[in-house]
Design brief:
CATH class of the largest domain: Mainly Beta
Structural class: alpha+beta
CATH topology of the largest domain: Beta-galactosidase, Chain A, domain 5
Protein name: Heparinase II N-terminal domain-containing protein
Strand content: 15-25%
Shape: globular
Strand order of the largest sheet: 13-14-17-18-29-24-23-20
InterPro entries: Chondroitin_lyas
Helix content: 25-40%
Largest sheet: 8 strands, antiparallel
Distance between the termini: 79 Å
Number of helices: 20
Radius of gyration: 29 Å
Number of strands: 38
Amino acid sequence: MKVLIKVTVAALAIIVTTFAGFGHTGEMLHQEAGAKLLAGSVPPSSTLRASGEDAFFQPLGPRRNKLRTGNAYGITMAEEALPVEQLPRMVNGHPRLLVRPSEWKHGLSFAQLRARARQEPWARQVAIDMKKPPDHPSSSSVITHRALLYLITGDETLVPRIVERIMAAKPQYNVGGGLVQTALWFDWIYNSPSVTEDQRRSMADKIAEVALKCARIYESGHAFDIWTHRGSPGWPSDVLAAGLVLDDHPEAVKLRRWGMGYFKRNYFRAWQHNGGSWMHGGSAYNIGMIMPQIIAYWASAVEGEDIYEVIQRDYGNWLEGHLHYMMAEVFPDKTRSDAVAWDYNPPGLRIKGKSFYWTIARAYGNSEFYAFQRWLKEDPMGGPYGRLIRILFYSKAIDGRAADGVLDKPFIKLWGRNGSGYLQMRNKGWAPDGTVIEFKCGDWVWTHSQANHVNSFWIFSKGRLAVQGGSYGLDKCWHGGAGSHYFTQTISSNSMLIFQPGEFNHAGGSGAGDLLAPGIIANPGGQRMRWACGQTCFTFDEYLRRKSEESTVQAGLFETGEILAFEKAKDNSYTYVSGDATMAYNNPRFSYWYKGKKSGRVWKNKPKIDLFTRSMVYLMETNNLVMFDRVQSLDKSWKKSWLCHFQGKPEVLDGRLIKTEVPGHIDSFNGGTIQMTWGDGVLKPPNPDDPGRLFIRTLLPEEQIIRRVGGDGYEAWWNGKNRTGDSKKAKSLIKKLDAGRWRIEVSPAIPKKFDNFLHLIHIGDTKTAKMPTVGKIESENHRMVGVAVGGTLVMFGRSGMVDDEVSYSVPKGIIDHLIVDLKPGTRYSVAGTAQGENKITASEEGTLRFAVNGPATIKLTPER
């Protein structure tokens, strides 16, 4: 027993070492959990006992109970297990992972695979690979390739190395997912005549043993639970993969129950919550690639249940939504969106070269994905080493439907209306001259950067125009001053600041500097921190509870934003969205607090706002974006600032300079029109000779001050310092990133508690010489206000929903009227149209749309 303890402690040391240096509070809890595991202080569990090592792989019940407020949630895989009577029937025989012994709906049979391998281009690639089979014993991808070559050729010389690697299987510490590959190797060599029955039994025992350990590690808290910054679901996938590949092994049914139960009760629901969007981190997504792989295993290994149909029918079709999200991450210049705001690796496309996404496209017949991959210069049929596995997934029928021009059409999609709240609007799809507008207003799930950017927007059009400021890797990631004071804060986003004296946020790490007290720093007017996040929840129900109920030991509430309305016209002429980000700020319902780790002292913030909503209407034909904000602070002296970040320097065309703080870097104007042409960027537009240009006109507040900040040495200026880091590397790195070199702050000239911000943003290029003519329209009772531009009028409720009579006048030429913020489903009498008086019912999202050729006076009267 002593020997077992020593071995286990050494193994677990890997876990703790892996987490050393993490600054995130949730991750610190996992360090504490690791220490408890090492110390052997966790009491044994009556539900999980598979070996003498159990004492070191037990669920940390006390740790999880700390994060509760009295409600009970599952903390073991056994508690989340699927009842045995609900288990689907397994495919008989092997291979059954990705390929079956007989024909099936979503893939090839073993005979079909071998027949396809004799056809081109696959036959040529197999011949090349078999001349010198890959042989790198420590590389999982190499072993997978060997196993595939064996499946295709039956060459027994390939098998010994695979057996050796299976017998060396162990948990892939701190993220999991290693056993997913091991199970595949075992399945593909299962029928090898060179494998003895004893070897086959030993390999099965090894897989079961490791799977049980993976379950215990996941329960211990080391896995980061449902949503992870490393890309879930590594550990549960290991458990399920083992259950799917094992036949009559004593642990097989239990592992299937645990894996399938956890996925259906938690993981699928969590992904459905976000509509398939991945609001986490970019290069941290490698383990996330396991998700389509384990689902493909499930589909191939099970009869009588089509898991793809189950996800589509019962879980909001989130899996195909995820495929669309991964495609939508890619801009027309073939770089990655930075809306997640973490790793800053624009060329690192997470969808490129990832073969298992073809399984989703095949399952749902998604021909757009084939066209998209060809646009990325990827071969759907396979290619060099590492891509041969696509021989299993390619569908000639789907590929044949991938029509030319399919990627140049408008694309508008909202992911996770009740979850992540991520919207993307494209006027020309992925065409090089297309516009991409992004908006985010949703729950706190997990973004590696901890970026506080609810109700933020981003714009790409012939280059990155409205961008995310700062960068995660500038200075010790979030541990340093760049991350703590700027990049993770709202000041780096395109959202709203409300400056409350004395407000604080948690410091990302010991290197933050400028501490107000140990662990806390000044909040630059932005949103509250949310420590910890969804990663600390083992079950999805616990996550939902923490959207509305605060943890007793960690200051955090996951409810940070809500999509109030979303509507797109059938003809794509407009898209309307409205988001409420009040909960993202310190507010009367919840304000962030912090408890010192050593002192035990508790610091508490005070509420500063009780309202911040943002509504946007994108008018696709004219490429105009109308933005309307409502902000109410609890003290009129607290300054509000509307933010927008740029790479190029914004010019103030018709405003008067009223103050210069730092010549050439910080100055203020009494209003004006902003013009910014793409520039000073590393990421070139699709056509560098034809970059994009942005115009911004502020119509409300009527009296405003525009503060412009930026340029060399002032890219991330806040509180008297440029927050790009103090090291020479950090100072030079900022010039090599498109991380926002300038920003504007639009503030009311007259302090008030309640303010409206009304902006017209026109998206053009160097051929666009000036801002289009724009007019502000207000109703007679001042309940509604809006913008008339390009033949379209958009009206908003000043304070929110309007349910009484509205009357307004429009000038000549205004034809299309879009009225929002009306009571949904209410029938209105619309007077003043060319047809006289019409009866129109407001949509489910509270909008009316009709045509009037001005000049005219319009009167909207709700029927009581």
